[in-house]
Amino acid sequence: MALAALGWILQDGDRAERYLSLTGLDPDALRAGLDDRQVLGSALEFLANHEPDLIRAAEALAVTPEELIEMRRILS
């Protein structure tokens, strides 16, 4: 679910830039960290901190916002 959320974040250029800027990741570090719990958790943290994105991501992934928040808790 976290990997799918990250994919959703990266589908939009402006949103992807905001994610990279806020996390301090660059594209290479992001690619290298796709199996890292901390990187995946950062995607869910990013969504949790911006409710409009959280809601849209949940809709796109066919889950509830609460499920995304719970996954963030599990990964952290």
Tell me what the structure shows:
- This protein has 76 residues and is mainly alpha-helical.
- The protein is 79% helix and 0% strand.
- It contains six helices and no strands.
- The mean pLDDT is 96.
Order of helices and strands: HHHHHH
Envelope shape: globular
The level of helicity is over 70%
Taking all Cα atoms into account, the compactness measure Rg is 11 Å
Distance between the termini: 14 Å
Which structural category fits the helices and strands? mainly alpha
Put simply, the count of helices is 6
Could you give a short account of the major beta sheet?
none
What portion of residues belong to β-strands?
A: under 5%
Mean residue pLDDT = 96
In total, how many beta strands? 0
- Uncertain parts: none
Quick tags:
single chain, 76 residues, mainly alpha
